[in-house]
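Limitations
The structure tokens in this dataset are predictions for the assembled complex, not deposited experimental models. Users should treat interface geometry with appropriate caution, especially where small molecules or nucleic acid strands are included. An illustrative entry is reproduced here so readers can see what is and is not provided.
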Amino acid sequence: MELQGALTLAGLVVVILSVLSVLRCLLGPTVPDRVVGLDTLNTLVVAAMVVFGAALDEIILVDVAIVYALLSFIGTLYIAKFTERGLS
Amino acid sequence: MSFLITGLLAFGFYLILTAGSGTILGGWSAAELIAGAVTALIVAAASSRLLGQRCGAGALNPLRWVLAFIYVIGPLFWGMAKANLDVARRVITGEIRPGIVKVKAGLAEDLGVTMLANSITLTPGTLTVDIDDESHDLYIHWIDVKTDSPSIEDISGGFSGWIRRITE
Amino acid sequence: MSPLEILIYILGAVGLFFNTLGTVALFRFPDVYTRLHGATKCTTFGSIFLTLAVILYGLTSWQSGGESRYGILALHAAVALVALLVTNPTGAHAIARAAHRSGVGPKFAVVDALADEKGRRK
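Predicted assembly:
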């Protein structure tokens, strides 16, 4: 179907963008900069999963996206806490 | 009380995720309903102490939920749209004048301050950096500083009024 | 092409535009805080529009084809939307606070009230 093709294309663009945000993780220069890159990556991956879930007719991908969004949020909080005062 | 609220929220969330699995009450199978109820009980027993300090009995008032919903789809969404066009313009042109300013929130409850901080983060050129635990002052990173000591209306428009109506 | 399909295309295009801007902002802005502005706001907004496109796609397919799994798709996409909307600003706030407390100050800032406050307390 035509619409599903367009959605697949949109998902591919989001995947390319998420690769670019990994580049920010690699470049740094400070730890919070890398965390910002990671947070952007998480949001983009969730968006890509939802779009691919519709494009490929796999509803399970959208469920995974929900769980990924919540778990990545907890991951971000923990990394933020760690950069604040170290592992304790 | 917090046990009940947590359990109901968990059960509602479970029902939303499993809608369409059967025919009871229009869309659920008996197995999913029982599994959801058991899961909600476990979740409530495990985490009600964590949420209990944050939400009182007023969290179940349906009027507040309606107000919160209107707030999210109305003023908040409009503010977000303006914020994004503004930031989009700054990304393209590169015009920034960043700084961190201090603002009095004027809200008493933790929940209200949390909602206000989140709303501010999603609205034009502002990002909450820190909250003073005692005085509930907000420290806000502003991408385009206009005055050194702004009021809450300069930062968030009418959001603080809306949040006061929802939470208090 | 029906008007609803055109609306889906428009929503998807707007979402992709804002997501692209958010990623560009990561490379264009000078320090953590300004990057957070671009990254959290633009990508959240862009992802909201992409998810809205998916919700609308699910609803129209449900109406025309009558298969209930498209309705479930729309419902689950809506839950993902709410999850993004609630978690993203909180995550941005946590990163900003951690950055400031770990000593990474804003570059090119005209005023820094938080650093002044900390200096006064010491």
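Some entries come with short summary sentences. For this one: The helical segments of chain C are 3-28, 32-65, 68-101, 113-121.
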